[in-house]
Amino acid sequence: MRHVALLARLKPDDEEVARLADELSAILAYMGRLDELDTTDVPPTAHAVPMVNVWREDKSSASLGVEVVLANAPQSQNGFFRVPKVL
């Protein structure tokens, strides 16, 4: 517990370490109970609920020409946007 706290740059006091150790032990005990379940007929899943792709199909199309893109640019040079230096 203290090693993980050190890696996370945390400084728990002794009371917090004891409390967190008890909580972690309870979580691990529960995970041990899950090992007792018969899961032979349960298919492996990546998500608990079905996932649906809500995005449109990706289709290529013609892009705008350089002249059209730079038409409203405040400044351009050699086919590129011209911007002030940022230091």
What does this structure look like?
The chain contains 3 helices and 2 strands. The chain has 87 residues and is mainly alpha-helical. The protein has a domain at 1-37. It has a two-stranded antiparallel sheet. The longest helix is centred in the N-terminal third of the chain and has 21 residues, at 14-34.
Keywords:
elongated, single chain, 5% strand, 2 strands, 87 residues, mainly alpha, 37% helix, 3 helices
Q: Can I get a quick summary?
A:
The protein is mainly alpha-helical. It has a domain at 1-37. Helices cover 37% and strands 5% of the residues.
SSE map:
Elements: H1 2-7, H2 14-34, H3 66-70, E1 76-77, E2 80-81
Antiparallel strand pairs: 1-2
Structural class: mainly alpha
Note the run of SSEs as H and E. HHHEE
Number of strands: 2
Identify the strand order in the major beta sheet: 1-2
Strand content: under 5%
- Biggest sheet architecture: 2 strands, antiparallel
Q: What's the total helix number?
A: 3
Helix content: 25-40%
Poorly predicted sequence stretches spanning 5 or more consecutive residues: none
Measure the end-to-end span: 45 Å
Q: Please, what is the average pLDDT?
A: 89
Seen as an oligomer or otherwise, the chain set is: single chain
